Amino acid sequence: MQAGKEAKGRHSTMSESGKPILYSYFRSSCSWRVRIALALKGIDYETVPVNLVKDGGHQFSEEFQALNPMKQVPALKIDGITISQSLAIIEYLEETRPTPRLLPQDPKKRVFVRMISDLIASGIQPLQNLSVLKQVGQENQLTWAQKTISSGFNALEQILQSTGGKYCVGDEVSMADLCLVPQVANAERFKVDLTPYPTISRINKSLLALEAFQVSHPCRQPDTPPELRA
Known about the structure:
The protein is α+β, with helices and mostly antiparallel strands. Helices cover 47% and strands 7% of the residues. It contains 9 helices and 4 strands, in the order E-H-E-H-E-E-H-H-H-H-H-H-H. It is globular and about 45 Å long.
């Protein structure tokens, strides 16, 4: 599914094979969301790793900034265009390659999927991402991340108790689930106590049993360091 290229600033318009190109970092939760979507929809693609920490961060190179002015991953080159922002990428994939469906047909279920996705992608993850952690200082990073994730999870647990079935919204995998699993992984990395969140934990466990969530996992990417590989 993926072919890694160590690239600090090599950004072709299309891969030589004509496959979509995902600019990704193995540990990026936003990149993971898109990797899950690509896997679920059976889209063959190539990965160009963008190391967010090496040499001060390859996302700050002039070459990558030309690709994505926000200097963030993921970015996806597909169908002759370049898309940034993980939820925008997933929505585009949904509109152009609708099988399997990641947004329910029912409007009420669909709005719940978008609500949960936005809660995570706008209300939790940005508050504990790399750029914010740099600002709060090394000695405060763990406490800050734990506080922000727990605050968001308190709300999310309550919401999922009403919307959830086997997964975040009913019994079909949706965009909300693509946001949930990477955020739980972040919570575990920052040693958040997940005991108060049984619904989140149950859904996360069910999702991690699915192949698309396994092949897209940070421990199985072209740029995963040897010591972190599964």
